From TrEMBL:
SUPFAM superfamilies for the chain: Creatinase/aminopeptidase (SSF55920), Creatinase/prolidase N-terminal domain (SSF53092)
Pfam families on file: Peptidase_M24 (PF00557)
Name of the protein this chain belongs to: Aminopeptidase P family protein
Residue ranges annotated for the Peptidase M24 domain, each copy included: 180-379
Source organism superkingdom: Bacteria
Keyword annotations from UniProtKB, A to Z: Aminopeptidase, Hydrolase, Protease
Amino acid sequence: MSYADLALLEQQTADLAAACRAKFFSTAPELDVIITMDPVHVGYLTGYRSILQDAGPYAQAAIATRDRMVLITGASDAAAALEQLDDASCIWRYGTFYVGATAGVASYADMPAQGENYVDTVVSALRSFDLRGVRAGLDTRDERLTRVIWQQFPQAAFQNGAPSLKRARATKLPAELAFLRHASHITDKALESVVPMVHAGVTELDIAQQITGTIVRGGGIPRFVVVTSGERSSRVDAYARNKRLEAGDLVRMDIGCTVNGYCSDMARTLTVGAPSHEQAERYAALLAGEQAQIAALRPGALVSEIFNIAIDAVRKGALPEYQRNHCGHGIGLQSHEFPSIAPDSDVLLESGMVFCVETPYYELGWGGMMVEDTAIITDDGHELLTCSSRELYQVK
């Protein structure tokens, strides 16, 4: 996907959000309205994702019916929200923040009156809906806000809305898949780009910098860049350090980014110099497990069977005692989402689901290695989104 293609997709974000809302209500016909305070679900239903969420917990909400949507956000955030949503009337803001506007430009003056605080603004926005006798899904972990909503709107029948949102998000719409393809593509290219620069003496931070730059140039936002070497490669999800690579080191890279909120997650392993016999044999076992999983991805497959296929294949190789709590996971607006490829899952794969499949191995004092890829479940099998070599890279 080119920059032009990505720009066109970004322009269609509002249309995608409308399609996601329609999909939600088609999969949750028992609900008339959904109220969410989960930032992931706010983005899913509105199409707006606030950069303020990256700075820590930030109070936002979305309310949606089959024919209307509103966003509740902080006053400082409203200008960015307006750029994305292009409809001032649907943005309810709380707090005080001053942003001027040139005459004739949509502005804060076109929005509903600002609220003093988050809770009061949520209540005010809800009052703009007719909730008499409606079946309302409420998706929040804020017990205080939940009690306030129950007290203020006794005429509505509330139920937990989170399971319905999870069910709707399990399969992806075509525009969602396009974002996931782009996120996976630039992550794939980022990992490929480091191979020529890696050698003894280069630091983990040097590699992380190269990966991060490639992702940003491709239009993505780096989310986790795990580069660990030598014994540190056994340290799960550790930050890169100013550690220089040495001959014989394993280098484990586990990388993810987002494009318009949609995630990538993939991993590769390399060795500095030729791998030892043990390194090569262990990696071959892990690769066999991951490839066996990939071959089994198809609609109707049982998730727990995919897990067992991976474990059995690895154990036939140089890791006969191999253990994992999962061998992959769904991916979309979160890097780990429903369903997990786990031994106790009774979920059947469906066309439109997207999975990361992986077979990592970590041994403190020795090192770690992994291979991880992303695939869409299609009507007749799967589509791999990550295409770089899965072999154990060897660098000088």
